[in-house]
Amino acid sequence: MAALRALEEAAAAQWRTAGGHALEARLSPLADESRASFVLLQTAALLDARAALAKASLQSINSAPAPPPPPRPRRAPHRDDDDESDGSALQGALVRRNVRRGKPELELCAGAHAAPDGSLRLLLPAVMGAEECEQLVAGGLVAMAGAFARCGQTTLGLSPALAHRMRPAAPPPHASPPHASPPHASPPHASPPHASPPHASPPHAYPLHASPLHASPPHASPPAASSPPAAAEPTLPLLYRTVERARRAVAAAFGEAAPTLRTSDATLTRLQPPAAAGAAAAVLDVGALRADRFVYSRPHLDQVSVAEYEYSALLYLVGHEGGGERGSFGGGRLLFHDEDADRVVLPRPGLLVAFRSGAPNLHSVEEVTHGSRFALTMWFTTLPQSADEAAAVDPVHAAMQRWAVEEAEALAHGRPPPPPPPPPPPLGCAGALPTREESILSAALCSLPANDRLCQALLRARASGAPLCDSLASGVGLPVEQAHCAPSCTDAEVEAALDSLRDEDFHPLLRGRVKTLRALTTTLHRAIAQRGGALDVGNGLGSAPVERVRGSDCKGTSDDFSLFDAAPCVRNDVDATDATRGSREDELDVLHKVERPTTEDPFAVFD
Ligand SMILES: O=C(O)CCC(=O)C(=O)O
Ligand SMILES: [Fe+2]
Q1: What is the pLDDT of residues 403-416, one digit of tens each?
Q2: Which atom of ligand 1 is nearest to the CA of 375?
Q3: pTM for this prediction
Q4: Is any atom of ligand 1 closer than 6 Å to the C-beta of 485?
């Protein structure tokens, strides 16, 4: 199993950079679960990336010159995809008047404060307990595996697509089912009306999986059996419960009737130093790749972006380093840019900040200098939903929201709370880790705004049946084999794992991919050997070495077969029929585009 350790470590390093360090530093038991799920997903992404590279290499052997890499996208237009606010005269005037260097800074403490127009700015601590915040971070990290970032910001909208990302896979065969009645995940100090109810959750609903990468863990007892009870608490219902808790708190504080205050939008957001986004952070930063001008640190009014927003609320899940907590982040303070001073909020886990979304509250988030800042960002409105909007709400999302309201009502009236709704149907193949295509689609749906041009291009590709990986690659200006964020393992590490282990040694959910990759690699080696042989004859090089396939370093290679390019074109048709055995058809459709040989036996040419 030592050969798997390098793969595991590469993915675990991504998890740490993606924010896992905050959990590790607190020695949270959820860390193990979150890391294991993330590692499993990212290892699948690594195998997918290697397979994509092998396919590309096979294609380049079969069809002479490779297509030129897509042109880099043009610089983003002045008005960015997800930000209408630059056009606002009101916001512009406030920025000119209030955003300047050298202003005094006043730190806001917990409690009620007045905005310049007299409206409330609320800082309500301990709305969520520390363990609840940790669980949202642990689950968020898994949900963000393979999601897109934009200039250091990864945003997952509370949506069915997010629901799918919170249940990435079926549990491995050796894992124990979650406890039928999970004990409270809430800490004892959480205020009683907010405590998690002792409901029975359906087995395996929205799990974070305690899934090691390898099939037979070296330890005697399966990890799930020794996992602490908090790990069994499903994360998605907790997310909806948190939004509902915030909604009720905002309604109460601002004097709105709870039933008429509607959640307009809610997102789980991670902010990182812009430079951290990239392979190391397990994030494909489409904003950085497209040179978007939009950055999270710009001063803005929320209501300018979306007119129906009336109340903005932030619920912080990780603390600022000023709070002295381990695993905290630097920078990332919330600033209210008032005319006389900047009023500063230091995020703390469980702290709810709420304010009116309109004119007096020009605000920004400082750039995060280190670590990862996780928060729930919510906007509420009293404006009724239009009939069209109501009809378009996804039933999974609607059921979750209804359940969260019912649960809060039941707890408020001392009634037994209802169990959460069943998990949503799987996006792709039930029980499997998502394919690369599925992963791209769900990332588009939950981590990009609907008006983002990449999101629209991906949805168009899906509608027309075109490969999403091609659209993604051209959208961010990368060759297709580089448009991913799989862990960066060396060739030697991946080859060592493939060479020294049997399929059965891998986690059951990875075996199909391992088989595919082995078959592709074998086919590729044969093709290269064959091409090398032809060269020997064709160009008189005699013992010209046959270059071993470099495989992927996941950063892409210029051309694995450049050795052969100068040779007279001796065409060796290669099929990869081997590669299709034991794997899913849809993962391999690219192979069918490789020209097939005329002989019955695709490998006869090599024998
Ligand atoms: O995370 C924060 O503190 C503020 C975020 C924000 O201003 C926004 O998303 O509109
Ligand atoms: Fe904002």
Answers
A1: 999 999 999 999 99
A2: 1
A3: 0.79
A4: no
